[in-house]
Amino acid sequence: QQQVKQSPQSLIVQKGGISIINCAYENTAFDYFPWYQQFPGKGPALLIAIRPDVSEKKEGRFTISFNKSAKQFSLHIMDSQPGDSATYFCAAGLSGNTPLVFGKGTRLSVIA
Amino acid sequence: GAVVSQHPSWVICKSGTSVKIECRSLDFQATTMFWYRQFPKQSLMLMATSNEGSKATYEQGVEKDKFLINHASLTLSTLTVTSAHPEDSSFYICSARDRSGRVSYNEQFFGPGTRLTVL
Q: Does B57 touch chain A (CB under 8 A)?
């Protein structure tokens, strides 16, 4: 029930295309859904996050879509660039001091 | 704001020695810090949760006597890998939560990670 399932495991997108990564969760108590970007040899960096009271959040080229009834959320990267090539992790969190639950990650490669 | 640092960024040590990794929140006070381990091309594996002034809570399967965690202040947590062995070689990452309320209460900020290689 604490799992967050992320797909696909890897993704190759043409420069300028849209990258879409999906996550699904089971625990309806989760109330915070962030996405992290990680480059090789670096720590994860918070990219964008959403709460279940909204269905979409956009920050620049990055958009989170949230479907509460389906218990799914996704990250869309518009106009994907080679610099976006990284590993992306979705996560889900509860109130209090409990740690985030992470998906297994998606390795995105944006090719020119 | 919300910067977390780790020191050292990489360390190479001989088998049997102990290694200490520091995690600091530079511009905020952290209620809670988390320690993760990450193997190549894999996700983050939570090792333990530490709260300032109290004992760390370790995840199942993580040896508390091997991975000593101390959270002595609101800005510093340390992870000591005792009697390190080659299988302990990994990327160790800490994260922290900001208690001030400036940001979301469950937002986690990650450090840059420490690459440990045990020979």
A: no
Q: Is B108 near chain A, with CB under 8 Å?
A: yes
The Cα–Cα gap between B16 and B104 comes to: 41
Nearest to A43 among B51, B104, B111 (CB): B111
pLDDT tens digits, B53-88: 888 999 999 999 999 999 888 899 999 999 999 999
Q: How far apart are CA B80 and CA B65, in angstroms?
A: 10
Q: What letter would DSSP give residue A84?
A: G
In sequence order, the 6+-apart residues with CB closer than 8 A to the CB of B77 are B22, B23, B30, B33, B35, B50, B69, B70, B71, B94, B96
B107 reaches A (C-beta below 8 A): yes
Report angle CA A80, A82, A83 to the nearest 5 degrees.
95
Which of the pair, A103 or B72, is modelled with greater confidence?
Answer: A103
Fill in the DSSP letter of residue B54: S
How far is B86 from B16, CA to CA, in rounded Å?
A: 9
A1 pLDDT higher than 60: no
B112 touches chain A (CB under 8 A): yes
Residues of chain A neighbouring B109 (CB-CB closer than 8 A): 46
